Every structure is written in C-alpha cells, then in structure tokens.
Amino acid sequence: MRKTASCSYCLVLTLVYIDRIKTRHPGFIISDTTLHRLFLGCILVSTKHWEDSYYSNSYLASASGVSIDQLNAMELQLLSLLGFRLYVSPSKYQFYLDSILVPLPEFPLPQATHIPQYSPTHLSHSR
C-alpha cells in the first residue's frame, strides 16, 4: 500500500490501541476470528488520524474482503472502544516501539521523532 508506506509508525500505534482496548474493556475477547478485523480497524483509525493521505474506506473494504458497511461499523465501534482518544505521546510510542524491537548492534533502534505533535485541545476536535 503505497499511500500508507509512510505510516509505518501506524503499526506501533495499532499495538497501543489494542492494548488500550484490552485495558479499558477487560472482557473484550480477541480470538483467531476477530484479530484480523481488530487489526484492520486499528490500522484504519491510526492512518486516518495521523496521516494526511490515506485510502478510502471503500477501497480498504474491497482490499480486505469485508463489506463497506462492516468496515464503517468496525471503525465506529473501535473509536467508541477507545473513547475517541487516539493521541499517543512520544514517550508512550517509544515504549511500545522499544518493546517490540530487538536491537542488533549493526541496526540501532529508531527514535520516536516522526509522530506529529498535537496539543490536548486537538483531541476535542474531530478530523
């Protein structure tokens, strides 16, 4: 996906969002049959929130094998589960990045420098 290639950090944000959902909703069950939908929803939400250019829901629905109605419903449900709070601080982002990367001597860990900085007031405005 060329448009989302610049959003490699959206993969880390997806992990943050999944962890937030599990923390906010301990009874939320992630299974083999729901994981791909949860992952798709988190990628969709993180890309839309952090990137200026992203694929439309209709394209993503077609590419992922779900209907547009299902994808729209997943997006809204995911936002609701997250309390519509998508901001991730650079330190939290770095924590998650560090927890999934195993440093190799010849490849130092990247630093969280590409995450856009928003003020808390940004969170109260819809995009």
Descriptive keywords:
127 residues, disordered C terminus
Verbal overview:
The N terminus and C terminus are likely disordered. This protein starts with 8 loop residues before the first helix and ends in a 27-residue tail after the last helix. The chain is built from 5 helices and no strands. The chain is mainly α.
What's the overall average pLDDT, rounded? 77
The rounded Rg comes to: 15 Å
Structural class: mainly alpha
Work out the helix count.
5
* Unreliable stretches: 1-6, 118-127
Strand content: under 5%
Shape summary: globular
Give the N-terminus to C-terminus distance in angstroms: 22 Å
Find the count of extended strands (DSSP E, 2+ residues): 0
Order of helices and strands: HHHHH
Largest sheet: none
Helix content: 40-55%
What is this structure's SSE topology?
Elements: H1 9-24, H2 35-50, H3 57-64, H4 68-81, H5 90-100
Helix pairs in contact: 1-2, 1-5, 2-4, 3-4
Give the gist of this structure.
With 127 residues, the protein is mostly helical. It has helices at 9-24, 35-50, 57-64, 68-81, 90-100.
